[in-house]
Amino acid sequence: MSGRFISQADTLIVFPGFGGPGMMGNAITLFHENANFKRLIVGGIHPKLIDDNVGTYALLHPEVLARDPYSFVPPTQVFTQVCAEHTKDQANWIARQCFEQSVTSAVLIAAPFHLTRAYLTTLSSLHNVGCTDDDLLLIPHAASAPMTKVFPDFGLSQWILLAGELRRIRAYQEKGDIIPDKTIKEYLTWLEQQLGFAI
Fold first, then answer.
1. How far apart are alpha carbons 150 and 11 in whole angstroms?
2. Structure confidence by residue, pLDDT tens digits, 84-103
3. 15 CB contacts (<8 Å, ≥6 apart)?
4. Per-residue confidence at 53, pLDDT binned at 50, 70, 90?
5. Whether 141 contacts 107, CB under 8 Å
6. Are 39 and 171 within 8 A, CB to CB?
7. Residue 14: per-residue pLDDT
8. 98 near 60, Cβ under 8 Å?
9. Going edge to edge, which strands form the sheet with 105-110?
10. What is the dihedral of CA 79, 27, 3, 189, to 10 degrees?
11. What pLDDT shows up at residue 54?
């Protein structure tokens, strides 16, 4: 996503997912490169990943983010979920933070293979807490990671993981965790109008 559009947001939302320190490091770099960001909202990591990957994952509270490998000095507002069971759990918590903090513009960053599901799930959760299209400009942004990158948690490349994500999106739409296609199209059409380019 071009910096021109990122500069329209004052909040960075992070889905740390399965990227480990590299994923958070990518997000922190993006945060520091954009002086307009005033708020950082970080979704949680599954407790099992923390237990099984000592040294790869850590509880992402502000004190941890201030140390290596992140070396992040918190801005005025830092919100960290720490632990989450799944993407919907992350999205629900993130949506509540956005609603409570009256966030009106944000960039959502996630691993490339996970970005679409994280984005659509967050849109659904925002609708559920009462954030309408006009309330929040949510800009998707893929972390810098090649699709051939093998994620250690799975031993699979992002190309293979992406196929699984596409199946989950349809399944979770049927479950009600993700907004229907019609609502997605309406929001993306509105977003294109706000940003002045096609998604």
1. 29
2. 788 999 999 999 999 999 99
3. 43, 87, 90, 108, 109, 110, 111, 114, 118
4. very low
5. yes
6. no
7. 92
8. no
9. 77-80, 39-42, 11-14, 105-110, 137-142
10. -70
11. 44
| pLDDT value, residue 190 | 81
pTM: 0.83
Q: Which residues of 89-116 are buried (b: 16+ CB within 10 A; e: fewer)?
A: bbbbbbbbbbbeeebebbbbbbbbbbbb
Q: Which two tokens stand for residue 21?
A: 């320190």
Class of residue 127 by CB neighbours under 10 A (exposed 0-12, middle 13-18, buried 19+): middle
pLDDT digits (tens, 9 = 90+) for 153-168: 667 777 888 888 888 9
CB 46, CB 81: distance < 8 Å: no
Query: Which amino acid is located at 126 in the chain?
Result: L
Residue type for position 61: H
